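Intended use. Records like the one below are meant for learning the mapping from a protein sequence to its folded structure. Do not use them to infer anything beyond what is encoded.
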Amino acid sequence: MSQGLPWPTESSPVAHDPSKHWAFKTVKAPASPAITPSDEAKVRQPLDRFVLAKLKSAGLDFNPEAPREVVIRRLTLALWGFNPSAEEIAAYVNDKDPQAIENWSIGSSLPQPSANAGPATGSTSPATPIRRVTSSWKNVAT
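Structure written out for the chain above:
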């Protein structure tokens, strides 16, 4: 205040109409962008139309589809942090179901071994207690 900030001489609560707040508006589905017939094959789900329209407006296009070996490797690295086994790659590559990636990611969501599965101390030796409890619980040997 001492540096010149003006103090309001009068104040009144700002009256906002709650019905005009965006959270109270009815949700409306946006119009799907028009795409060329040649791009229709690239669209797999409705969201792809919006992404493709934005890319086209910037002079870009979708990247080509990655080979199945690359897809399974990317997914495994993203989910667990390590590469898939040769058997997992072969099973996924040979699965011709269009929903194979969804089926694989759901079916393999069981806990997997990881690099951090060892002891918390980083030691590979058997865990040794810091203290031993002797016959009397009050007498703790160190």
